[in-house]
Structures are given as structure tokens and as C-alpha cells.
Design a protein that fits this description.
Layout (H helix, E strand, L loop, with lengths): L9 H10 L6 H39 L4 H28 L19 E6 L5 H12 L9 E10 L2 E4 L2 H7 L6 H6 E12 L1 E10 L2 H19 L19 E5 L2 E7 L5 E9 L2 E5 L2 H17 L1
Parallel strand pairs: 1-2
Antiparallel strand pairs: 2-3, 2-4, 4-5, 5-9, 6-7, 7-8, 8-9
Length: 302
């Protein structure tokens, strides 16, 4: 050994070893880090899953709650549909238990539409009873408001019942209508009652010529009131002067008319020609207006 070379001491060996410790292999360090990161990631995923499950349960609870807007809407719709169903069931039940009145089929011919018809059989009746029956029906309280009830007169001959013509009825009541007037009238006529502010009666005739019919009516004026007041149910209590009252000219519904007025100026009876070939005798303006309306309806239909 060289004299100048210093011998290696044990302390120098230990110092060098402690001051420079051996480095860990990099592969072991990376694996441990990856494991730690993987655990952290899994923990985060589990938390996210738990949060998502909680949100899902909350949404399901909202769907089942009555306070949610969607469920409120469905609830309201359901109640409405149930109400409609109940109303429909009640309506069907009531309809099944309601008796429907049959539609009346008119038997006698009508010059205008009649809401109802009623027969007066004159076969076994005296003249007074004919008047009594007619006036009783005219003043009936069973006629519906603003409707027309037609009374038609019948008689039985050799077991066959026939409807009286205009000429037959005027002869039956012993009227003073002239032959000229009777000839100018069509056989079909209508005797009816209109109800509005009280019952008012009318007789409606067809005519062949207005001139002959009007001339015949002028002749009949002297006895017209006397012949028909009972048929029309006109009350003459304290009005005996009406039998001597004269007809006078008037304009009714823009038509020339002949009228009898009481002492208060009220029209008691009148006649006029609604058209060229129709004649009406009536005791009320309401009845006259309704007849006018229904004649106009016939024109529209035609």
C-alpha cells in the first residue's frame, strides 16, 4: 500500500451510505398512485350514483304528489269527465221514464196551421146547445198561450160522420147570410180561437170573388152581430145596445175593415179581407194579427 494513500475508515463508509439512500424503483411508485387514484374515482362515482338515485326518488315522489301541476291537471280533467258521465246517465234515465206526448194529426182541413183541433158533434144538438158547446170551448182555459185551437163541426148521417162546410154551419146557426154571399164562399172554412191576452175567436173563409163576398157582407151587417156573438163567446152583459150598433169603416193592419165598437170605442166585432180571396170575421186584433202571420207563412212555403 502506498504510504501517501489514506486508509478508508468505517465511518466514511457509513456516512456515504446514509447521505445517499437508494432510490425506490419508479415502477412501484406509479402503481401505488394509480391505485389511490382509482379508489378516489370509484368513491366519486358512488357518490354520483347515490345523488342520482336520490333525485330519481324525489321525481317519483313529485309524480305521485297531488300538488304537482301535471297531477292537478289530470285530476281536474278526471273530475270533469266523471261529471259529464253522471249527467249523461241521469239524462238517459229521465228520458226513458218520460212519456212523450204523441204529435197530433189534424183531422179537419185547415186554411192556416192549427196547433190543436177539437170536434163539436152537432148531430143531436139543438141550436142553443151548439152555441153553448162552441162558446164553452172558445172560453176554455186549457188553450196554450199564443196558440190557435180549431173547432170543427160534424154531423152524422146514415151512420157516416161528415165535417160541416161553411154553408152548412151558417145554415145551422140560422144566419142571415145572403145566397150571394154563400155562393161566393168556398166550402172549406176555419173556426178557431187564439189565446194571448184572453181568448179571441175568428172565422176564416175562402172566397171566389172579393166583390161578391164584400157585397154579401154589407147585406149581412144588419144581423151579423146577432148571428155570431154566441158562437164567438162575446159577453153582452150591460151591452144590449150592441145589437143596434152600426158597422163603420176602419183601417186595421193596413187593411180596409168594417167594425162595431162599444161605447168606449173598443172593437167588439170586425171583418176584412187579408188577401184577395180570404175573408175573416173576428172579435180581436191579436187573433187577427196571428191569422195574418200564418197566412204569410203559407205564402213563404209556397
Amino acid at each position: 500500500m502506498d504510504e501517501n494513500q489514506k486508509p478508508i475508515e468505517q465511518d466514511d463508509i457509513n456516512t456515504t451510505s446514509m447521505s445517499n439512500p437508494p432510490q425506490q424503483k419508479s415502477g412501484l411508485h406509479t402503481y401505488a398512485g394509480d391505485m389511490a387514484q382509482t379508489l378516489r374515482d370509484q368513491k366519486g362515482s358512488l357518490i354520483k350514483i347515490a345523488i342520482a338515485e336520490q333525485h330519481k326518488r324525489e321525481e317519483q315522489q313529485d309524480d305521485l304528489s297531488y300538488s304537482s301541476p301535471k297531477n292537478k291537471f289530470y285530476l281536474i280533467v278526471g273530475i270533469l269527465l266523471a261529471g259529464i258521465a253522471i249527467v249523461a246517465i241521469v239524462f238517459i234515465f229521465i228520458s226513458k221514464n218520460t212519456t212523450v206526448s204523441p204529435v197530433q194529426t189534424n183531422i179537419a182541413p185547415s186554411l192556416i196551421f192549427a196547433d190543436t183541433q177539437k170536434e163539436i158533434d152537432t148531430t143531436a144538438l139543438t141550436l142553443d146547445k151548439v152555441f153553448l158547446s162552441a162558446s164553452g170551448e172558445v172560453s176554455s182555459q186549457n188553450i196554450k198561450l199564443n196558440t190557435i185551437q180549431q173547432l170543427y163541426f160534424t154531423t152524422e148521417v146514415s151512420g157516416n160522420k161528415t165535417i160541416l162546410s161553411s154553408q152548412d154551419l151558417l145554415k145551422l146557426i140560422n144566419s142571415s147570410a145572403s145566397p150571394r154571399l154563400l155562393r161566393s164562399m168556398g166550402s172549406i172554412f176555419m173556426f178557431g180561437t187564439h189565446t194571448y191576452s184572453g181568448n179571441q175567436s175568428f172565422m176564416l173563409f175562402t172566397t171566389t170573388t172579393r166583390e161578391d163576398a164584400f157585397a154579401g157582407m154589407l147585406t149581412w151587417e144588419n144581423k151579423l152581430f146577432d148571428d155570431v156573438y154566441q158562437l164567438f163567446g162575446i159577453n153582452i152583459t150591460d151591452k144590449g145596445y150592441l145589437f143596434s150598433k152600426k158597422f163603420e169603416d176602419a183601417i186595421i193592419k193596413n187593411k180596409d175593415a168594417r167594425v162595431i165598437r162599444d161605447n168606449n170605442g173598443k172593437i167588439i166585432l170586425m171583418y176584412l179581407f187579408p188577401t184577395e180571396n180570404t175573408l175573416i170575421i173576428t172579435n180581436g186584433e191579436n187573433a187577427l194579427q196571428e191569422v195574418f202571420n200564418r197566412i204569410q207563412d203559407l205564402k213563404v212555403v209556397k
